[in-house]
Amino acid sequence: MRIDVHAHLWTDDYLDLLDSYGRTDTGTQRGTGAGATEQELAARFALNDSVGIDHQVLSVSPQVPHFAEQRHAVHAAKHANDLYASVVARWPERFSAFAALPLPHTDAALTELTRAIDELGFVGAAVTTDVLGRTLADPAFAPLFEELDRRAGVLYVHPSGHDADTPLIGEHRMRWMVGAPMEDTIAAMHLILAGVPSRYPNVRIINSHLGGALPMLLQRADNQYRWESPETPEKPSDAARRMWFDTVSHGHLPAIRAAAETFGADRLVLGTDFPYQSGDLLRRAVTSVRDALAPADASAVLDHNAAALLRLPAATN
């Protein structure tokens, strides 16, 4: 079963709601083909069929309902999750969903996580690499990890598009081509150095974009963590291999090979980044895995790893 774990869907109504609560960056997300109209879904399905993608797991990130005002965050999260529930109910063979959470409000996030998984049937939750500038390893979010650990739940981590909180990225037109993978790298290292993967071993964490630069930096981290971050409970490479990584690499074969050699091919799951990669770029997101890896590893990454990780019923058919 070929499952794409990195795919987005939102409507103009949802983006309008975010705008009304103070977001200022939704303009570029409109008209991308990410909507839920009949025309947009038909085009999405045809594109997926052209490369054998059976199923996509939807997430609203980076258009997440993270707001300082709790009522805004809760309303937006419910709006997103109700939208996804309706789409999945109509197309269950095509879609599953990661829940949007009203962070940084941990108690409200736990309530919405319970609703999304127990009532709406979602397969996990999605967050961004930071929550309004706070690391995911912030102790305030420990109850969320505890609940996901109790459930053996999935947490999908996607860049926030906040330039890794540095003007050296944001003021030099590098938000997505450099900033996003740097956010992936930083978030993964925050989790590793804080011991989150070992403290919550049942949480199935999926990092975007092959973990950013992590495949190139992991040996360096292993060599240096004892003096720079001595509280780290295990080697960074051991912690990294407790997590999973989607294959969005913009078709760069050396990056896919480096990730497979660093983490193990069993820790990679297919991602396309639809709609940001569409048409031939999306097709390349699939064919590049076949081109980069040995046939057995490519088959595992494309058609087996995600189904096993997500424990979808169809995986046992």
Description of the molecule:
- With 317 residues, the chain is an alpha/beta fold.
- It has a single domain (3-316), classed as Alpha-Beta Barrel (TIM Barrel).
- It has 14 helices and ten strands.
- The strands form two sheets. It has an eight-stranded parallel sheet with strand order 1-2-3-4-7-8-9-10. Strands 5-6 form a two-stranded antiparallel sheet.
- Helix 3 (70-90) links the parallel strand 2 (55-59) and strand 3.
- It is globular, with a radius of gyration of 18 Å.
- It starts with a strand and ends in a 7-residue tail after the last helix.
What structural class is derived from the secondary structure elements?
alpha/beta
What portion of residues belong to β-strands?
A: 5-15%
N-to-C series of helices and strands:
EHHEHEHEEEHEHHHEHHEHEHHH
| Helix coverage percent | 40-55%
What is the total domain count? Answer: 1
Order of neighbouring strands in the sheet with most strands: 1-2-3-4-7-8-9-10
> Any idea what the shape is?
globular
Uncertain regions spanning at least 5 consecutive residues? none
| CATH-derived topology | TIM Barrel
CATH homologous superfamily identity:
Metal-dependent hydrolases
The CATH architecture assignment turns out to be: Alpha-Beta Barrel
In the CATH hierarchy, what is the class? Alpha Beta
Q: Please work out how many helical segments DSSP would assign.
A: 14
How is the biggest beta sheet arranged?
8 strands, parallel
Radius of gyration: 18 Å
| Beta strands, count | 10
Mean pLDDT: 95
Distance between the termini: 9 Å
Pfam families: Amidohydro_2 (PF04909)
Keywords: Hydrolase, Lyase
InterPro entries: ACMSD, Amidohydro-rel, Metal_Hydrolase
GO molecular function: carboxy-lyase activity; hydrolase activity
